[in-house]
Design a protein that fits this description.
The chain is an alpha/beta fold and 252 residues long. It is built from seven helices and twelve strands. It has one domain: P-loop containing nucleotide triphosphate hydrolases (Rossmann fold), CATH 3.40.50. Helix 3 packs across helix 4 and helix 3 runs parallel beside helix 5. It is globular.
């Protein structure tokens, strides 16, 4: 695909998010600008306190900026009412949370069905789609179990299925392997990579540089609320802190 043909699904322009704590102003995100194209696999990377969680909320339209603009599919979300924003978010973005956020008194399948209720799908359609999604994440034999009867990896796969309930363009994954052992985490990342190959845009928030470098095509490195640098896997090109493209030395 030519660069001019790429579709921008999420764009931040000079976005800031400030909080007041007593007499102090906390600059959780401080002047961030980025573009995420359809089909990208992007990682938002940084240590604790770097602004990752705030950035995730802004990218996912869960929060609005103090300054700057956020565009979702070309639409400025600052002009939306909360109900309209919730509807747009529900259609366009699927969320995978580190702590799974499953409802314990519902079955795995019922958890997957919940997002479809808010988008007006009837019961027959919800049942059909949930069955297909449980099959996709290889949990058809566990669909009638409660979250408490599932392993951590199985719960995360249910969360992945739930994130796909409304066929969103974008999957936003917050520390998707944070509560998993290495082997199970690798399985979850395989699922995300497979979704990306099928055309889904994946945005992963992580503190793990190895995870970011292994799976993402573009990594935004945060420090103190600012994008410190951007690195790209494609063609081995890196973009340094000042936006200068650097090509690695060729092996002799």
């Amino acid at each position: 695909m030519r660069k001019e043909d790429e579709k921008v699904v999420i764009e931040l322009k000079g976005v800031c998010k400030y909080y007041r704590m007593g007499d102090n102003i906390v600059r959780a995100v401080d002047g961030a600008s980025l573009k995420i194209n359809e089909g990208d696999f992007v990682a938002i990377m940084g240590p604790s306190g770097s602004g990752k969680s705030t950035m995730m909320n802004l990218i996912g339209s869960l929060d609005v900026p103090t300054k700057g603009k956020i565009f979702l599919d070309g639409e400025d979300i600052s002009t939306f009412s909360e109900s309209d924003l919730a509807q747009l978010r529900g259609k366009k973005i699927g969320f995978i949370f580190q702590s799974f956020n499953l409802i314990n008194n519902l079955t795995a399948k019922e958890n997957v069905m919940i997002p479809m209720i808010f988008q007006g799908h009837d019961l027959e359609d919800r049942n059909f789609r949930a069955n297909k999604l449980m099959q996709l994440v290889q949990l058809t034999d566990r669909m009638h179990h409660s979250p408490g009867e599932l392993s951590g990896g199985q719960q995360q796969r249910v969360a992945i299925a739930r994130s796909l309930a409304n066929s969103p363009e974008v999957i936003l994954a917050d520390e998707p392997t944070g509560n998993l052992d290495t082997k199970t985490g690798a399985t979850v990342m395989d699922f995300l990579e497979d979704l990306n190959k099928k055309g889904k845009t994946i945005i992963m928030v992580t503190h793990d540089p190895d995870l970011a470098k292994a799976h993402a095509d573009t990594v935004y490195w945060l420090k103190d609320g600012k994008i410190e640098k951007i690195t790209k896997k494609k063609n081995g090109w890196d973009k340094g802190p000042r936006g200068v493209l650097i090509k690695p030395k060729e092996k002799k």
